[in-house]
Amino acid sequence: MALEGQDNSDMSESMRSIPEKKHTDIWQLFREAQQNILYLNKQRMMAMEELDNMKREKKVLLDRIKQLEIKKQLSTRKDKLSIRSELLLRLDSMVLTGMIGTGEASDLRKMIMDSKVTVADNFSDILHKRDAELLAELCQFSDKSKKKGLHIVHICTEMAPVISVGSLASYVTGLSRALQRKGHSVEVILPKYATLNLDEVQGLREIEAEFYSYFNGQLHVNRIWTGVVYGIGITFIQPIYYSSFFSLERVYGYSNDFERFTYFSRASLDYIVKSGKQPDVLHIHNWQTAIVGPLFWDVFVKQGLGSTRILLTCQDFDSQCLEQPDKLGLCGLDPSRLHRHDRLQDNTKTHLVNILKGGIVYSNKVVIMSSMHSKGLIIHSLSYGLESTLAVHKDKLLVAPCGFDNSTWNPSMDHFLPQSYSVDDMKGKAVCKIALQQHVGISENPSIITVGCIFSEVSDVDLENLKALVCIASRKGVQFIFMGMRKIEGINRALESFEEELKDDNVRFLNEYDEALSHLIFAGSDIILCQSFDDPVLQVPLKALRYGAAPVAATLIDNQFSRQITDYDFESTEFSQYINNTFGNVSLSRAIDEIKNNPSQWNRKIMEAMTKDFSWDAECCDKHVSAYTSILNL
């Protein structure tokens, strides 16, 4: 019985252990199930992340493909324009060498410029053809279908990127490219400076012929060089006997500037006649080529240019060139005929002649480049002594705004940005802001208001305004990024002293200009401080609008209106009317408050601004085409 009792005890102990074992097994299975679920969730999350990465990579690839396609289209378009320009320049060479006459060359030029069938498709290997072979093929080119396009020749002293000093360079290039995109033919004539950036010129070649131009009572020999930039044919004139005129370190600022540019202006007209060109419009610029006006009407109009008209562009009126009247005789003009009040006599210093005034009087149309000022304001307040002349000729005055290159400055295809964006998809702008904050070493937060500032010059007044603006805004947690231009040392010194005085963690000063970083500043900023809304050199307000940053005047401190000269009459530009109505009275403090207190309304304002087209192709080009067309009907 003891043994039997012992067996029963063992059995009951064994029976008790069965539920415990089952309980342990269940928990073990539960834990394993939990681990499996966690593992599966982790695998699911990893799969989702991988899928998101694949989607992002796909979007990046698609964006990249789109950018490459756009670049390919632009490149193809540029190549065709380059071939057309090369053909026209080769015709000049044939005329100068006596291979063809001016009449035949004129017909061939019209065919090249007006043909509906792209001539470039038939002459893509032009560089490998000799003049005789090329001429034979041109003569056999049978398509005679026509389309209307203007032939414009710029006679100027700058063109980007070949030679750039001020706003004239980007204007000539930007307008010329826009005109060619709209079907017009454009050529540029420049002096052959020793400082030319010839690496930018395609197919640069010296024409194996020389032509003579009149100067200082004699005929002087010139060499001709030709090339293409952005599809625009360029002719460089190089004087032989006066070679020192353009072998200098600077473009402007010499005691003989009148002689230098008068020689070039006369030589350009001699070259046009010698090569048999018959352009619709000769487009001249500032005082440096304004002498073309009187030269054309007094000397050249009867030399096969009876249907050509003259348009003068003035970037401003503060540089006019006053000279002794007898110096007009250097280029073949009669001083006694021109030294009159209604012609070239200066309005104030009546014993001198005013070269810019002569250009105004002798041009069929005068375009004043100003984005913010109206015709009336320019005549009465910004004419620098030319008010009476401009008032007499006010009917031929036209105000046009500057543009900007919307293929280089475009956030949807900007290769300098870490992520592109557009008005339809603004996510990339926040990415750009973080990248900008990382680059300059300030707090990384897309919700912090960031203000960018890119200056070409800093005066004492500008500096005091900036100090006041920064002190007010930095208390609100706003970030500032300042960039000065490398070319002007005074700006860098001013900003350095500002930085030492300020010592604010929310402010960064970048004393050396960087092209890639400037794109990132526009893309990563909410606000761009502007020294002026009329900015033909840096074009800061135009770029700010394109990149979704509000252009705010650095001269506005709350209600203290140290205003720029602007006005609202009906002759103001579209840009002037828009900027005045939208941002003209917005101080930095007010802009910050609007962003914080009414973000949805502010975002609508910014997105509307991004849709505006203020490029060279828009209002600027349209106004010039209208001006060209109007003078051809005179």
Main attributes of the structure:
Rossmann fold; 634 residues; nine-stranded mixed sheet; globular; alpha/beta
Q: How are the elements arranged and paired?
A:
Elements: H1 2-96, H2 102-114, H3 131-140, E1 151-155, H4 167-181, E2 185-191, E3 202-215, E4 218-229, E5 232-239, H5 257-274, E6 281-285, H6 286-290, H7 292-300, E7 309-314, E8 322-323, H8 335-338, E9 353-354, H9 355-362, E10 365-369, H10 375-381, H11 387-392, E11 397-400, H12 427-440, E12 450-455, H13 460-474, E13 479-484, H14 489-502, E14 507-510, H15 515-524, E15 527-530, H16 540-546, E16 550-553, E17 556-557, E18 560-561, H17 574-582, H18 588-597, H19 599-611, H20 616-632
Parallel strand pairs: 1-2, 1-6, 2-5, 6-7, 7-10, 10-11, 12-13, 12-15, 13-14, 15-16
Antiparallel strand pairs: 3-4, 4-5, 8-9, 17-18
Helix pairs in contact: 1-2, 4-20, 5-7, 7-9, 12-15, 18-19
